[in-house]
Amino acid sequence: MKLSIKTFFLASAFSTAAHAAWREDLPWSDLEENLSDSAILVDASAGDYLAECGGEYDKPVDSFARSNHGLQAQPSGLCLPHFFCAFNNCMVNPDQPTRSITDGLVDTANVQDTQLYSEINSTIKGWIDDPSNPMLNLPTKVLLPTSARDVVAAIRFAKDHGLEISVKNSGHSYTNASSKGNTLLVNMHQYIPYATNLGPIDCDPDALTDSLEDQPCKLSLAKNKTAVIRVGGGENWGQVYKSIQNANKAQSDGYKYHVTGGAAATVSPMGWTFSGGLSGTTAGRTFGFGVDQVLQLEMVLPNGQHVKFGPTEWEEVEGYDMPKTLAVTGLCNAEPFETDESKWVWEDCPEEIPFDDLWFAVRGGGGGSWGIVTSIYLQLHEYMPLERVSMKYSACVADELDDDQAYAWSFVAQTFEIKFLLDPASINVAEADSNACGWPMGDNAFNCYGDGSGARFNEAWKTYLSDNRQSLEDAGISSDVIDEAIACGFDTLTGDTNFDPFSASTAIMKFNDYLEAVAIPDNNPYYPGLGMDIPQPGYGPTFNDGANVLVPANWILENIDLAASLIPPNPYSYRAFGGKTKGSTNDQLNSLSDAHRNAGYMISIPHAYNPDEFFSTTLPAWYDTTNEDDFPGYIGGNHAGINTRGPLKSDWTKACPLEWTKEERDENCISLQEIIWGTKRLKRLEAIKEIIDPNYMFDCNGCVGNNLRKDPTRPPTTAKTTKKPVAAGKTTKSTKSAKHA
Ligand SMILES: *[C@@H]1O[C@H](CO)[C@@H](O)[C@H](O)[C@H]1NC(C)=O
Ligand SMILES: *[C@@H]1O[C@H](CO)[C@@H](O)[C@H](O)[C@H]1NC(C)=O
Ligand SMILES: *[C@@H]1O[C@H](CO)[C@@H](O)[C@H](O)[C@H]1NC(C)=O
Ligand SMILES: *[C@@H]1O[C@H](CO)[C@@H](O)[C@H](O)[C@H]1NC(C)=O
Question: How confident is the model at residue 710, as a pLDDT?
């Protein structure tokens, strides 16, 4: 085995006295002996963090230069896309350990995201560069596993010695869940890239056995889909998209496969999927959320068992594309130390594992909490080309509108978007044409799928404009200008990746696939050919106290005018909701909140903005806040802000004061977990957590159970339990169900 031990002494040149390495009392060589040859156990340090990650922050923010591609490739596995979040509460000043959000990140100085690392002022740099700074919250033992064997060894070692594990893939978690001081960090970046190695797998309906090996294809065929892909626990979306693109290019009769995934190439299909998975870029409104794409999970659980599991009993439900999951079957690998997978032995587990509950919990209950996922099988869909449509609605006539008229124009555009996406029948748009389009926050074009989808979108807009010309004329816009806009042709462009939809007229850009649209140009000096990184690394946390609020589609439709004026115009809202995400792609055994299924948009509202009004007026209009035993989940799991909290526990109409310290906020305000999942669903997840991970080996920030662990009155869990929780809403077997496996 290869050991890459960088001693702490080398890296701690800054400090006069060397610190004892974390848990150097433990027999780490026992773990090393059980690792595969290519796995690396790193002794990392704050010095490594600065040396490896600071360099990336010395690149300019523009031109795809500063990127997670660079951070993820660093050898220590420590780099974070939110630089200061290597420190407690993302704050580095050791003299002010407990401060409020309003005190700012690094004392009063605002380190701008655009600033180079080398430009940061010397006082602040002194805090960052001091390895004995008590604010530092980085793990110093990092395992880079390359096979399931390594993950099993790590978890068993952690179990034997009562260690906590933090698990990281892309490190994109906005809630700081990916790494934690005083834990063994398992960074999956070097893990087997199954999607890259194997590509899409076609399902042959005549060659399926009852074994779990064939379960992904069986479930896929039950959904009328003929191909699947296995994704490694350390692969990112960029790699998956590349694998699909390569397979498509190799087809003799045209592209064949489509995968529904995330916008950023550096985001992982693991954390993205397990928090829900919003796809505004790859037809999520037609194919569902990330959780809806999963066919089978392979993971190593806190009990050290290497398992795989997936639905083996389901029933067709009228009106659903996705069969309802009735039963989940799982097996344990009796030979987890075999690196040759063909020698793995899948058999009944030695102890009972509630696989139904795990299937429910992992898909929607967040990454990093239930064990380490080593691979997943995802659904593939029939290929469709991408047509990106500019959202510059006033194209051709923008110069002729004054500010008030531009507002009136964008108001009409807003109401059009609402109806096009959430009530297409009301403007004579076919549901499939509506579902074909969506966008993530910050994009400036609709991503529509299917030949002619862009033209149909444009057609619908021109018709709407014509039908609503009166309201524009009422705003003083001349009839000529409106006619000019309606007659304004649109450009159809192909293959120009530097296209800027905002500056073009009503352009439609055609691409073979999403990766082509976001590929970094080949002449880029930093990361040519890779998929774009969104957002780029920054110093502070993304969103901080910002709240990504899910706005119910019903409310939007009942209050279209109000919604059109309240909801920030594109590109500041997220439109990956409605369409089939409402329900027909839901297998009815996942933990994604109802708020996600019922949402129209997700919008970013900083809680600092009119916070009391938000909780006294806005939220009660959107959600039922009258049941004191069930606070509703209303925050989007994928983009929850690190410091987002609900209202006061004692008064749901009052916001959690930003002036309070984190400790005060945690004690007196409704937790981040509760506002993501809602009280009832969170309780069920917590009950499952107690069974799957009774000792909280996985206790990541903001994750299920993380706030419980800190409750001093919580009795320690020692007993091993195999008792199933009484699962709310548990499916009952139906005689109509088709039996499988
Ligand atoms: C980030 O997570 C660490 C634990 O890993 C915690 O100590 C810290 O308070 C967290 N920061 C925030 C802002 O939640
Ligand atoms: C740098 O910023 C810190 C924090 O705002 C401030 O206290 C300090 O005076 C500044 N130091 C220098 C050298 O500018
Ligand atoms: C190491 O592997 C041996 C079998 O090869 C096993 O008995 C032992 O439990 C393993 N130790 C750990 C910490 O995984
Ligand atoms: C299954 O897919 C094929 C090809 O896309 C389609 O023609 C057929 O109507 C689908 N069948 C069902 C039951 O959805």
Answer: 61
Distance separating alpha carbons of residues 580 and 586, to the nearest angstrom = 9
Q: Rounded to whole angstroms, how far apart are CA atoms 127 and 111?
A: 13
Residue nearest to atom 2 of ligand 2 (CA): 109
pLDDT in tens, 531-553: 988 888 989 888 777 789 999 99
The DSSP result for 37-103, as a single string, is TT-EEEE--HHHHHHHHTTGGGS-SSTT-S-HHHHHT-TTS---SBGGGGBGGG---TT--S-BGGG
Read off the amino acid at residue 651: D
Q: CA angle at residue 382 from 377 to 386, to 5 degrees?
A: 110
Going along the chain from its start, the domains and CATH numbers come out as 28-190 (3.30.43.10), 194-382 (3.30.465.10), 386-511 (no CATH), 546-674 (no CATH)
Q: What percent of the chain has pLDDT over 90?
A: 69
Read off the amino acid at residue 659. E
Mean pLDDT, the chain, whole residue set: 88
What is the predicted pLDDT for the residue at 545? 78
- Residue closest via CA to ligand 1's atom 14 equals 89
The two structure tokens encoding residue 414: 């807003």
Average pLDDT of 261-285?
97
- Coil, helix or strand at residue 600: strand
Token digits for 286? 């037609």
Using the atom order of ligand 4, give the atom closest to the CA of residue 382.
5
Residue nearest to atom 1 of ligand 1 (CA): 176
Give residue ranges with CB within 6 A of ligand 3.
30-31, 34, 153, 156-157, 160, 337
Ligand with the closest atom to the CA of 258: 4
Distance 32 CA to ligand 3 centre (A): 10
Tell me which H or E stretch contains 232.
strand 227-232
Cα–chain-centroid distance for residue 736? 35
The three state secondary structure string of 497-565 is CCCCCCCCCCCEEEECCHHHHHECCCCCCCCCCCECCCCCCECCCCCCCEEEEEEEHHHHHHCHHHHHH
CA distances from 166 to 351, 617, 636, 646, 720 (A): 25, 39, 22, 26, 22
Give residues (CB < 6 A) around ligand 4. 224, 382
The DSSP output letter for 334 is: S
Is the whole-model pTM more than 0.70?
yes
